[in-house]
Design brief:
Blueprint: H1 2-15, E1 25-26, E2 36-40, E3 45-48, E4 51-54, E5 59-64, E6 71-79, E7 84-91, E8 102-107, E9 140-147, E10 150-155, E11 158-164, E12 172-178, E13 182-191
Antiparallel strand pairs: 1-13, 2-5, 3-4, 4-13, 5-12, 6-9, 6-13, 7-8, 7-12, 9-10, 10-11
């Protein structure tokens, strides 16, 4: 009997316990683009008020230098009326030509709304179930949880989309600006 118990304990130790989630890490320091690569127009993104502004001059992408697999990303977002932007998850180093990334829509589109192009929808996969955006110009909370192929999107603590996405096992995170004003601040990532 003691041999069986030792065998079971050794087997459990060899399998290991699941990895604990990492400590939250700020992806943006509020002062520079350290840890990010800017693609597109030189003024597609600028630093303003401790956050990143997708500037109105030209479309572009701001891409993390590091790649991530399973994670929870939280941030604050704000937009001007009619603006459109997005966050690409598990994308290639240049997300503009990537077809395997999950794209979360961050849009004001002139009014809070639900539907396929509303803030909190997953483009081409799941429309936003509810209109969760605050009025134009207000800061909104965003939480993205990507585990395996399952992506859950929350806007202001309301789940707007939860769907299976077809992405690579890991990849970069990119802010995508469409040439309109859109702010992002307090980006924090916790690997799962």
């Amino acid at each position: 009997m003691p041999r069986l118990l030792l065998f079971i304990l050794a087997l459990l130790a060899a399998c290991g316990a699941p990895a604990a989630p990492s400590a939250p890490v700020a992806l943006y320091d509020g002062q520079s683009f350290k840890g990010w690569t800017l693609l597109g127009g030189e003024r597609a993104f600028i630093i303003e008020g401790g956050g990143v502004l997708a500037y109105g001059d030209a479309p572009g992408a701001l891409v993390t230098a590091a790649s991530y697999a399973d994670f929870e990303l939280t941030c604050q977002i704000r937009s001007d009326a009619g603006s459109s932007a997005g966050i690409a998850l598990r994308c290639e180093a240049d997300p503009r030509s990537n077809t395997r990334a999950a794209l979360v829509v961050l849009a004001d589109m002139l009014a809070p709304m639900a539907g396929k192009d509303a803030c909190g929808s997953i483009r081409g996969v799941a429309p936003a179930k509810s209109a969760a955006m605050q009025p134009t110009g207000a800061w909104n909370g965003l939480k993205l949880t990507l585990r395996g192929q399952q992506l859950e999107v929350e806007v202001n603590d309301i789940i707007t989309a939860n769907a299976r996405v077809e992405t690579a096992a890991s990849g970069h995170i990119a802010l995508l600006g469409e040439g309109e004003f859109f702010w992002v601040r307090e980006m924090v990532l916790r690997q799962l």
